[in-house]
Task: structure prediction
Amino acid sequence: MPHGDKGRGGRASIRRLLEMKREGRPIVVMTAYDFLFARLLEEAEVDLILVGDSLGQVVLGYDSTIPVTLDDMIHHARAVKRGAPETLVVLDMPFMTYQASVEDALRNAGRGLKEAGVEAVKIEGGHERTCEAVRALVAAGIPVMGHIGLTPQSVHALGGYRVQGRDEAAAERIRREAAALEEAGAFSVVLELLPAPLAREISASLTIPTIGIGAGPGCDGQVLVLYDALGLNPGFRPKFLKRFAELHDVALEGVRAYAREVRERSYPDAEHSFGED
Ligand code: KIV
Result:
Protein backbone atom coordinates (compact mmCIF):
# COMPACT_ATOMS: atom_id res chain seq x y z
CA MET A 1 0.00 0.00 0.00
CA PRO A 2 1.44 3.49 -0.80
CA HIS A 3 1.46 6.31 1.76
CA GLY A 4 -2.17 6.63 2.80
CA ASP A 5 -4.19 4.42 5.04
CA LYS A 6 -7.05 3.29 2.85
CA GLY A 7 -8.85 0.07 3.63
CA ARG A 8 -9.03 -2.82 1.18
CA GLY A 9 -11.97 -1.26 -0.65
CA GLY A 10 -9.93 1.95 -1.21
CA ARG A 11 -12.03 4.15 1.07
CA ALA A 12 -10.64 5.21 4.44
CA SER A 13 -13.26 4.29 7.02
CA ILE A 14 -14.06 5.58 10.48
CA ARG A 15 -13.01 2.16 11.81
CA ARG A 16 -9.65 2.65 10.08
CA LEU A 17 -9.19 5.99 11.88
CA LEU A 18 -9.77 4.28 15.21
CA GLU A 19 -7.21 1.62 14.26
CA MET A 20 -4.73 4.32 13.30
CA LYS A 21 -5.16 5.85 16.76
CA ARG A 22 -4.59 2.47 18.42
CA GLU A 23 -1.53 1.84 16.25
CA GLY A 24 -0.14 5.34 16.88
CA ARG A 25 -0.24 6.35 13.19
CA PRO A 26 -0.87 10.06 12.56
CA ILE A 27 -4.12 10.96 10.78
CA VAL A 28 -3.90 13.51 7.96
CA VAL A 29 -6.91 15.81 7.59
CA MET A 30 -7.32 18.83 5.34
CA THR A 31 -10.25 21.00 4.39
CA ALA A 32 -11.57 21.25 0.83
CA TYR A 33 -14.48 23.09 -0.72
CA ASP A 34 -14.46 22.22 -4.41
CA PHE A 35 -14.07 19.42 -6.95
CA LEU A 36 -10.50 19.97 -8.19
CA PHE A 37 -8.88 20.43 -4.79
CA ALA A 38 -10.85 17.46 -3.44
CA ARG A 39 -9.49 15.36 -6.30
CA LEU A 40 -5.98 16.60 -5.47
CA LEU A 41 -6.40 15.68 -1.78
CA GLU A 42 -7.62 12.22 -2.75
CA GLU A 43 -4.60 11.83 -5.06
CA ALA A 44 -2.36 12.89 -2.13
CA GLU A 45 -4.09 10.21 -0.02
CA VAL A 46 -5.14 12.35 2.91
CA ASP A 47 -7.08 10.26 5.42
CA LEU A 48 -10.10 12.53 5.79
CA ILE A 49 -11.42 15.66 4.06
CA LEU A 50 -13.34 18.20 6.10
CA VAL A 51 -15.69 20.50 4.23
CA GLY A 52 -15.20 23.15 6.90
CA ASP A 53 -17.49 26.08 7.45
CA SER A 54 -14.22 28.02 7.18
CA LEU A 55 -15.47 28.22 3.60
CA GLY A 56 -17.30 31.30 4.93
CA GLN A 57 -13.96 33.11 5.14
CA VAL A 58 -11.77 31.45 2.52
CA VAL A 59 -14.32 30.90 -0.25
CA LEU A 60 -17.21 33.29 0.39
CA GLY A 61 -15.29 36.26 1.84
CA TYR A 62 -17.22 36.64 5.13
CA ASP A 63 -15.31 37.72 8.23
CA SER A 64 -16.50 34.71 10.26
CA THR A 65 -18.20 31.34 9.82
CA ILE A 66 -21.47 32.64 11.24
CA PRO A 67 -23.27 33.61 7.99
CA VAL A 68 -22.64 30.22 6.34
CA THR A 69 -25.84 28.29 5.56
CA LEU A 70 -26.55 24.59 5.31
CA ASP A 71 -27.30 25.07 1.61
CA ASP A 72 -23.81 26.60 1.16
CA MET A 73 -22.29 23.59 2.91
CA ILE A 74 -24.26 21.04 0.92
CA HIS A 75 -23.45 22.78 -2.37
CA HIS A 76 -19.70 22.65 -1.67
CA ALA A 77 -19.73 19.20 -0.03
CA ARG A 78 -21.38 17.70 -3.14
CA ALA A 79 -18.55 19.05 -5.28
CA VAL A 80 -15.97 17.71 -2.82
CA LYS A 81 -17.59 14.29 -2.78
CA ARG A 82 -17.56 14.20 -6.60
CA GLY A 83 -13.83 14.96 -6.51
CA ALA A 84 -12.99 12.53 -3.71
CA PRO A 85 -15.39 9.60 -3.95
CA GLU A 86 -12.99 7.23 -2.14
CA THR A 87 -12.09 9.52 0.76
CA LEU A 88 -13.93 9.92 4.03
CA VAL A 89 -15.64 13.33 3.84
CA VAL A 90 -17.03 15.18 6.85
CA LEU A 91 -19.47 18.10 6.49
CA ASP A 92 -19.19 20.87 9.07
CA MET A 93 -22.65 21.75 10.40
CA PRO A 94 -22.94 25.56 10.22
CA PHE A 95 -24.07 27.92 12.97
CA MET A 96 -27.64 27.39 14.20
CA THR A 97 -28.28 24.19 12.29
CA TYR A 98 -27.94 22.02 15.42
CA GLN A 99 -27.87 24.31 18.47
CA ALA A 100 -31.61 25.02 18.88
CA SER A 101 -32.88 21.47 19.18
CA VAL A 102 -32.01 17.82 18.70
CA GLU A 103 -34.69 17.71 15.99
CA ASP A 104 -32.85 20.45 14.05
CA ALA A 105 -29.60 18.54 14.43
CA LEU A 106 -31.16 15.32 13.11
CA ARG A 107 -32.99 16.95 10.21
CA ASN A 108 -30.05 19.08 9.10
CA ALA A 109 -27.33 16.45 9.51
CA GLY A 110 -29.61 14.03 7.68
CA ARG A 111 -29.76 16.50 4.77
CA GLY A 112 -25.95 16.57 4.75
CA LEU A 113 -25.71 12.81 4.35
CA LYS A 114 -28.62 12.45 1.92
CA GLU A 115 -27.97 15.47 -0.31
CA ALA A 116 -24.18 15.81 -0.21
CA GLY A 117 -23.30 12.13 0.14
CA VAL A 118 -20.77 12.75 2.94
CA GLU A 119 -20.01 10.05 5.49
CA ALA A 120 -20.18 12.14 8.68
CA VAL A 121 -20.80 15.57 10.17
CA LYS A 122 -18.90 17.79 12.60
CA ILE A 123 -20.48 19.94 15.30
CA GLU A 124 -18.88 22.41 17.70
CA GLY A 125 -18.99 22.37 21.51
CA GLY A 126 -18.82 19.80 24.26
CA HIS A 127 -21.47 20.87 26.76
CA GLU A 128 -24.45 18.69 27.66
CA ARG A 129 -26.77 20.07 24.94
CA THR A 130 -24.22 19.32 22.24
CA CYS A 131 -23.66 15.82 23.64
CA GLU A 132 -27.42 15.25 23.54
CA ALA A 133 -27.35 16.07 19.81
CA VAL A 134 -24.32 13.80 19.30
CA ARG A 135 -26.13 10.91 21.01
CA ALA A 136 -29.24 11.40 18.86
CA LEU A 137 -27.23 11.64 15.63
CA VAL A 138 -25.17 8.56 16.44
CA ALA A 139 -28.35 6.67 17.35
CA ALA A 140 -29.75 7.65 13.94
CA GLY A 141 -26.66 6.22 12.23
CA ILE A 142 -24.92 9.54 11.57
CA PRO A 143 -21.23 9.52 12.58
CA VAL A 144 -20.20 12.70 14.40
CA MET A 145 -16.89 14.46 14.83
CA GLY A 146 -16.73 16.83 17.80
CA HIS A 147 -14.86 20.14 17.96
CA ILE A 148 -13.73 21.83 21.18
CA GLY A 149 -11.23 24.45 22.36
CA LEU A 150 -11.62 27.47 20.10
CA THR A 151 -14.99 26.94 18.48
CA PRO A 152 -15.24 29.58 15.72
CA GLN A 153 -19.05 29.69 15.71
CA SER A 154 -18.82 31.05 19.28
CA VAL A 155 -16.21 33.67 18.41
CA HIS A 156 -18.27 36.50 19.90
CA ALA A 157 -18.90 34.64 23.16
CA LEU A 158 -15.20 33.69 23.38
CA GLY A 159 -14.06 37.26 22.72
CA GLY A 160 -11.99 36.50 19.61
CA TYR A 161 -9.83 33.82 18.03
CA ARG A 162 -7.52 33.08 20.94
CA VAL A 163 -5.92 30.08 22.60
CA GLN A 164 -8.35 28.35 24.99
CA GLY A 165 -7.76 26.36 28.19
CA ARG A 166 -4.88 28.44 29.47
CA ASP A 167 -6.02 28.48 33.11
CA GLU A 168 -6.79 25.39 35.17
CA ALA A 169 -10.56 25.94 35.33
CA ALA A 170 -10.81 26.32 31.56
CA ALA A 171 -8.50 23.35 31.00
CA GLU A 172 -10.63 21.21 33.28
CA ARG A 173 -13.80 22.20 31.42
CA ILE A 174 -12.20 21.22 28.11
CA ARG A 175 -11.03 17.86 29.54
CA ARG A 176 -14.61 17.19 30.66
CA GLU A 177 -16.01 18.16 27.25
CA ALA A 178 -13.62 15.81 25.47
CA ALA A 179 -14.61 12.91 27.73
CA ALA A 180 -18.32 13.73 27.35
CA LEU A 181 -18.07 13.76 23.54
CA GLU A 182 -16.37 10.38 23.56
CA GLU A 183 -19.02 9.06 25.92
CA ALA A 184 -21.78 10.47 23.67
CA GLY A 185 -20.41 8.47 20.73
CA ALA A 186 -18.35 10.94 18.67
CA PHE A 187 -15.84 9.06 16.51
CA SER A 188 -13.21 11.80 16.74
CA VAL A 189 -12.76 15.28 18.14
CA VAL A 190 -11.05 18.37 16.74
CA LEU A 191 -8.95 20.26 19.30
CA GLU A 192 -8.48 23.85 18.14
CA LEU A 193 -6.08 26.39 19.64
CA LEU A 194 -5.14 24.64 22.86
CA PRO A 195 -1.85 24.60 24.76
CA ALA A 196 0.12 21.61 23.46
CA PRO A 197 0.46 19.88 26.88
CA LEU A 198 -3.32 20.01 27.44
CA ALA A 199 -4.04 18.64 23.94
CA ARG A 200 -1.47 15.87 24.48
CA GLU A 201 -3.06 14.95 27.82
CA ILE A 202 -6.58 14.86 26.32
CA SER A 203 -5.36 12.80 23.34
CA ALA A 204 -3.81 10.24 25.69
CA SER A 205 -6.98 10.05 27.77
CA LEU A 206 -9.38 9.29 24.88
CA THR A 207 -9.85 6.11 22.87
CA ILE A 208 -11.12 8.14 19.87
CA PRO A 209 -8.64 10.13 17.77
CA THR A 210 -8.05 13.83 18.36
CA ILE A 211 -7.36 16.01 15.34
CA GLY A 212 -5.43 19.14 16.23
CA ILE A 213 -5.21 22.60 14.72
CA GLY A 214 -3.02 24.92 16.71
CA ALA A 215 -2.91 22.27 19.44
CA GLY A 216 0.64 20.98 19.09
CA PRO A 217 2.19 17.64 18.12
CA GLY A 218 0.54 15.45 20.77
CA CYS A 219 -2.75 15.04 18.88
CA ASP A 220 -3.55 11.85 16.96
CA GLY A 221 -3.86 13.77 13.69
CA GLN A 222 -3.64 17.27 12.30
CA VAL A 223 -5.97 19.41 10.20
CA LEU A 224 -5.23 22.61 8.32
CA VAL A 225 -7.35 24.85 6.16
CA LEU A 226 -6.19 23.99 2.63
CA TYR A 227 -5.88 27.54 1.31
CA ASP A 228 -3.93 28.66 4.38
CA ALA A 229 -1.54 25.69 4.19
CA LEU A 230 -0.93 26.26 0.48
CA GLY A 231 -0.25 29.97 0.93
CA LEU A 232 -3.30 31.25 -0.94
CA ASN A 233 -4.19 33.56 1.93
CA PRO A 234 -0.90 35.45 2.39
CA GLY A 235 -2.12 37.92 5.04
CA PHE A 236 -3.16 35.14 7.45
CA ARG A 237 -0.18 34.16 9.59
CA PRO A 238 -1.16 32.65 12.96
CA LYS A 239 1.70 31.05 14.92
CA PHE A 240 0.48 27.49 14.35
CA LEU A 241 0.25 27.80 10.57
CA LYS A 242 3.04 26.39 8.44
CA ARG A 243 2.77 27.20 4.74
CA PHE A 244 3.62 24.11 2.68
CA ALA A 245 3.45 25.96 -0.66
CA GLU A 246 3.21 29.56 -1.85
CA LEU A 247 0.34 29.28 -4.34
CA HIS A 248 -0.61 32.95 -4.08
CA ASP A 249 2.73 33.97 -5.55
CA VAL A 250 2.63 31.28 -8.25
CA ALA A 251 -0.97 32.13 -9.20
CA LEU A 252 -0.32 35.89 -9.21
CA GLU A 253 2.66 35.42 -11.49
CA GLY A 254 0.55 33.23 -13.80
CA VAL A 255 -2.30 35.74 -14.01
CA ARG A 256 0.14 38.61 -14.60
CA ALA A 257 1.87 36.65 -17.39
CA TYR A 258 -1.52 35.95 -19.02
CA ALA A 259 -2.55 39.62 -18.78
CA ARG A 260 0.78 40.74 -20.23
CA GLU A 261 0.55 38.38 -23.20
CA VAL A 262 -3.07 39.32 -23.96
CA ARG A 263 -2.16 43.01 -23.84
CA GLU A 264 0.87 42.60 -26.12
CA ARG A 265 -1.14 40.24 -28.41
CA SER A 266 1.36 37.39 -28.04
CA TYR A 267 -1.39 35.11 -26.70
CA PRO A 268 -3.09 33.32 -28.36
CA ASP A 269 -0.36 32.52 -30.88
CA ALA A 270 -0.59 30.05 -33.77
CA GLU A 271 0.15 27.10 -31.45
CA HIS A 272 -2.91 27.91 -29.36
CA SER A 273 -5.27 28.73 -32.25
CA PHE A 274 -7.23 26.65 -34.75
CA GLY A 275 -6.56 27.01 -38.49
CA GLU A 276 -3.55 29.34 -38.10
CA ASP A 277 -0.79 26.72 -38.82
O1 KIV B 1 -14.17 25.04 9.46
C1 KIV B 1 -13.07 24.47 9.51
O2 KIV B 1 -12.28 24.49 8.55
C2 KIV B 1 -12.72 23.77 10.74
C3 KIV B 1 -11.32 23.26 10.88
C4 KIV B 1 -10.33 24.32 10.93
C5 KIV B 1 -11.21 22.32 12.02
O3 KIV B 1 -13.54 23.64 11.58
Summary: The chain has two domains: 2-245, 247-277. The radius of gyration is 20 Å. The chain has a mean pLDDT of 95.
